């Protein structure tokens, strides 16, 4: 009999994710190596686990300004340094990975971690993995559709016969190893498109909504569409779970958080635009507006962060909140302090309010 492994806290789950960007610290000018970045990611996950957070996610990029391309390898290393925290990709670029290999990797991770593996799958904000692995960007959506269909079948069956368009057929193929959990939980990352929300609902998988700035209420129609599509497809409402992901920075006071984060966030925004071949400068006035009380950018004191999470909870009634607090070259000691504040001061407020 398969084991159903669950780790629970009351209220919504609260976690962290990292994309592993390797950025120069705009204040010191220091830039760490990929090796050091990986060590710091493992250390952050260990701190989050020891502090009682629920989830830790690691992203996937295939370029020199990011440290992590082999996400399951990274998560496997983290699994050996942690005990309770759930471990997820954030996100797996499902269009350019073989679903069989992906399943085997995460089933192995699940066994190594004692049943803590998960996947957030997406189509990817960057396209470098397409030529790298021999795929055509014109098949961007078709690849994703076929690969998630195959993955969901692999998740349910130990032996499978399958035929598709983009990879070789499977004939009574044995899919091993099998995970400790009955199935590996899979979520679809949604950046704002109605089609992605409908797909997640139709498939009956979780939906992780990426809300980086601006008014979060603009995403409420997507959550409604997701639930409607899931119910129309006949899925149990309890199966239709929503996660909200976003950028953040926490310090003891609001002023401290906003002052400390500005150079790093401005550097991050400039770097993202530069990666896309564009120039951008974030003014202090624009930044101050972006970190306002009604914005989705989680910057402030623990009380302010908790208020923002709960304001979004009123909109979405989501089951998870996942923050990225290590962008733009922020030194590890500041990341570590943010983890401490999130776990010891923000999480108790949010869990108490959402467990009613």
TrEMBL record:
Gene3D superfamilies: Luciferase-like domain. It holds the Pfam family Bac_luciferase. Keywords: Monooxygenase, Oxidoreductase. The keyword Cytoplasm does not apply. Residues 14-314 form the Luciferase-like domain. InterPro entries: Bact_Lucif_Oxidored (IPR050766), Luciferase-like_dom (IPR011251), Luciferase-like_sf (IPR036661). This is LLM family oxidoreductase. It comes from the Bacteria. PANTHER family: BLR5498 PROTEIN, LUCIFERASE-LIKE MONOOXYGENASE.
